[in-house]
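Possible regression after last week's pipeline update?

I re-ran a chain I had predicted before the update to compare outputs. Posting the input and the new output here so someone can diff against the archived version. Not blocking, just want to make sure nothing changed silently.
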Amino acid sequence: MKRSDPTHCRAEALLDRVAQLLDEQLMTRQIDEPIDRARDEFERVGDGYSHRRFIEATARFVQHVYGKALPCARRLTPLQARNEAVGLLTRGYEGTYAGGYHGAVLDASDPSGPGIELVLAGIAETIKAQQRQMYVRWVQVRHVDSADWPTKCAMASILLERCGESLPPELRDCPPEQLAEDVFELLSLHVATSSQFRPVLSGSIGQ
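New output (post-update):
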């Protein structure tokens, strides 16, 4: 396929756009920093532990972050916030002594540690991870999964040509058609592991 071919040009443009959208600095600005600001603005919980305070603080924190820091603000009722906080802790909390909700309770009630503040920081990190996952999925669906088959094959061919040396050996000799449905995974691998990926990719556009 010639570089001037419309399908090849479309594939190059899509790859460059996806690489830009997956840029770590961009995701930090758009996802992490608003959540960090909301965490810093949240009213300090103070010393002392009780399970009631733990439940109330985590629920209010989730209410605050969801209302202030997400791309689409969510206004949670107290009950919704409580359920969401429990879910976030259960699924994503990695504690000092244990994970999940039980680990969060142990950390919050530990008199020698930061207490509930540590748990709130953990919730913030879980929300970041969740939002990043949703964002990356949106990028994939919007810009890669929606492409037609010839464009996906062209995208795979471009990746093999320009970044083949950094691919696992078992993938280097694969025909583009075999990798067409794995384009996003290949591109994500390069974005995550090679700081030189974007210049290598975008620098070739227009050649």
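Follow-up from reviewer: compared with the archived run. Confidence is low (pLDDT under 50) at residues 196-207. Marking as no regression found.
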